[in-house]
Write the structure tokens for this entry.
Amino acid sequence: MGFFEHLEEFRRRLIVSLIALAVTFTVAWSKAPVLFELLAKPVRRFLPPGQNLSYTTLTEPFLLYFRVALLGGLILASPVILWQLWLFIAPALYRREKRFAIPFLLVSVFFFLSGCAFGYFEAFPAVVGFLVGIGTQFNAVITINEYLSTASKIILGLGLCFELPILIFFLTRLGVVSERWLLKKFKYAVLVAFIVAAIITPTPDVATQTVFAVPMLVLYLLGILISWMFRKRKPKES
């Protein structure tokens, strides 16, 4: 493909992804209050009885439900978006490599949803518990949009971080990295993992950042194994 053909292909994949997102956004919008109740469960466990989240402007509840629907729509549309990503990348691959299409879709969706689930069930409650626990001597006034910003950042951030093995697979097949190179750079991966954890988490404490960094390092090691399994092997000399 030429440059403009790549642009046209990108535009086509982007349009399909946006249509899928519009459909899933509509579905999520109809359930936005229910979805937010699910997101609010972690903080309700730590708030005093009778205390609730707050808002300071008239437009905040509407913007909240819009953002909740967008978050839910992104998660629901992730299989279609990842499939469009594969279709955009596929022309750069060899024909024998394109047989990974269905496994790529299944595995990438699995990793993304696993990351979101880990963020919701493990990482986010840990962050909420830590932050609320620090301020027990004060009256908490937690705004709904601030709370949703933290939840979205952690859940989507971990969903994307869990795609690391898939990224390593493609970089390996394209000859950009190898398992030896990745293993040699592990000490830098530790540093990057904690930097990303510091960006995702709103807390400066090492314990909370470790909750995020350790899974990323495990995924990095898994990526090294994937790189070894799917590396391009030199043809044997006859």
About this structure: The first helix runs from residue 3 to 30. The radius of gyration is 21 Å. The CA atoms of residues 108 and 163 lie 6 Å apart. The chain has nine helices and no strands.
